[in-house]
Specification:
345 residues, alpha+beta, four-stranded mixed sheet, cytoplasm, Phosphoribosylformylglycinamidine cyclo-ligase, phosphoribosylformylglycinamidine cyclo-ligase activity, PurM-like_N_sf
Length: 345
């Protein structure tokens, strides 16, 4: 017999099935510090001696979602990688402060709870956590048919890391003549999708078409998950060879790198120092978007920028080359020009 709660649109048994399906997936992300995860009222993460031996331990946290990229995933009925985006948006921010990632929590709100869909989403979150050095220790699923339409859902995440206060990265360490090292993005990442969707609608783009310059259908290029940089960048953080890191999200290079530039200095960028991926040219041409606006909205092929002292640049480049990490030297820090970040034209 159908309960009144089910008649109202909420299926408790589907929620229980979904939790059972994801328990083993989540457990694969756990490290030895996880005392308890899914199942209790709160997850437990032990700060072991390895973590508390820091002189001045500081917890670094970050929270985010994936924006309207979700709408393309829903339209394509492809939920396998959107969880990676969720983790990346939080984990890359925490990494940019110089923190060692610890654990991650997620929230999934749905119009209709389908265990298979939830399992696909959480698998992606787990993959992202493994790539980011995070333990997925808890989360929440909420079936809310009064808020979301049946196929709709939303995601948010929360990451926590730890660092020694004296080793935190940021504008306070940036100096004149520091070198800017841009790390390749995997594509559009998870910002600017309101403009992406407007371009698709206005230009009547075919999501299943392989446009010139692309190696896959447009929808696959747009759903390519955000790059996670932990394994490439954290060894450089540990070595003490970085002054600052900028995670390039909404606002592009200017807004995000600008956070890392102290008063009196400017990050001068050479726009010819890297090749902008074809997906951005497809969008720019189809939407007739100016280069200035493209730079303000998108990462334009660089998902993270490292700020490095000239004395350490050879060692940093050697490490990145050994890792086969795609990067370019995109500029340097100079005495203040007009803005904290400026393109060299």
């Amino acid at each position: 017999m159908t309960s009144q709660y089910e008649q109202a649109g909420v299926n408790i048994h589907a929620g229980e099935d979904a939790v059972d399906d994801i328990k083993s997936i989540v457990k694969q992300t756990h490290d030895s510090n996880v005392l308890s995860g899914i199942g209790g009222f709160g997850a437990e993460y032990e700060l072991t001696s390895e973590l508390t031996k820091l002189k001045e331990p500081v917890l670094i946290s970050g929270t985010d979602g994936v924006g309207t990229k979700l709408m393309l995933a829903i339209e394509a009925n492809n939920h396998a990688t959107i969880g990676i985006d969720l983790v990346a948006m939080c984990a890359n921010d925490v990494l940019a402060q110089g923190a060692k990632p610890l654990f991650f929590l997620d929230y999934i709100g749905l119009g209709k709870l389908e265990p298979e869909k939830v399992t696909a989403i959480v698998k992606g979150i787990a993959v992202g956590c493994q790539h980011a050095g995070l333990s997925l220790i808890g989360g929440e699923m909420a079936e809310m048919p009064g808020i979301y339409h049946s196929e709709d859902y939303d995601l948010s995440g929360f990451a926590v890391g730890i660092a020694d206060k004296s080793h935190l990265l940021g504008a306070m360490k940036v100096q004149e003549n520091d070198i800017l090292v841009g790390l390749n993005s995997s594509g559009v990442h998870s910002n600017g999708y309101s403009l992406v969707r407007k371009i698709i609608q206005d230009a009547h783009l075919d999501l299943n078409k392989v446009y010139p310059g692309l190696k896959q259908p447009l929808i696959d290029a747009l759903l390519t998950p955000t790059q996670l940089y932990f394994h490439q960048v954290y060894p450089l953080v540990q070595s003490g060879k970085l002054h600052a890191i900028a995670h390039i999200t909404g606002g592009g290079l200017a807004d995000n790198l600008g956070r890392m530039v102290p008063e009196g200095l400017t990050a001068e960028i050479d726009p010819d120092s890297w090749q902008v991926p074809s997906i951005f040219k497809v969008l720019q041409d189809a939407g007739n978007v100016s280069t200035t606006e493209m730079r303000q909205v998108f990462n334009m092929g660089l998902g993270m920028v490292l700020v490095v002292s000239p004395r350490d640049i050879e060692a940093v480049e050697a490490t990145l080359a050994q890792q086969k990490t795609g990067y370019q030297l995109i500029g340097k820090v100079v005495k203040r020009l007009e803005q904290p970040v400026q393109y060299r034209e």
